Amino acid sequence: MVYKFLFEGGSNNSYYFETNNGCIYEIRFKPTPYLFENESKEIRNNVFEFAILLEYNPNVKLPSKDKNMGATVVAVFIDFYKKIGNAASIYISILQMEKNLLERGNLMLGFQNLTMKHL
Predict the structure, then answer these.
(1) CB distance 29 to 71 below 8 Å
(2) E strands along 71-119, which residues?
(3) What DSSP string describes 56-81?
(4) What's the rounded Cα separation, in Å, for the pair 47 and 34?
(5) How far apart are CA 22 and CA 43, in angstroms?
(6) Taking phi first (over 0 means left), then psi (-120 to 50 degrees means alpha), and beta for anything else, what does residue 21 get?
(7) pLDDT surpasses 50 at 81
(8) What SS3 class is residue 6?
(9) How far apart are alpha carbons 92 and 52 in whole angstroms?
(10) Among 80, 76, 23, 74, which Cα is nearest to 53's?
(11) Residues of the chain above pLDDT 70, percent
(12) Cα 68 vs. chain centroid, distance in angstroms?
């Protein structure tokens, strides 16, 4: 199952979704043209930093493993690629919160089965 998500856009190309346990996440595709400042404008304008942030947690503890979260992140990736015409390079920024989520397996559940046919 994929959680319903909302594309808000803005400077970070932000998406939002809420999990069954009431947590709200933001997925960002932040433009990072400075990484390839010596390259063509086309390349500079199609490089994004991916980050997933826990924006709201109604619980005292970190969220537990959620099998729907990975599938939702994959669906957001597919939607983002469609919006920008499949010409983007995306790298993953792992912040401390993201490390905790990765360790719990929340993100990897969806990425394990992602293949090029999905894009």
Answers:
(1) no
(2) 89-92
(3) E--SSSPPPP-HHHHHHHHHHHHHHH
(4) 9
(5) 38
(6) alpha
(7) yes
(8) strand
(9) 9
(10) 23
(11) 62
(12) 14
Q: How far apart are CA 68 and CA 13, in angstroms?
A: 22
Residue position matching structure tokens 């559940």: 109
Distances in Å between the alpha carbon of 25 and those of 14, 35, 77? Answer: 10, 26, 14
C-alpha 28/C-alpha 10 separation (Å) is: 10
List Cα–Cα distances, 101 to 13, 37, 62, 66, in angstroms: 21, 32, 9, 10
What's the farthest any 2 CA atoms get from each other in the chain?
A: 47
CA distance 71 to 1: 7
What is the C-alpha to C-alpha distance for residues 76 and 26, in angstroms, rounded to an integer? 11
Q: Which amino acid is at 93?
A: S
What tens digit of pLDDT does each residue of 10-38 get?
Answer: 999 999 999 998 999 999 988 886 766 66
pTM for the model: 0.73
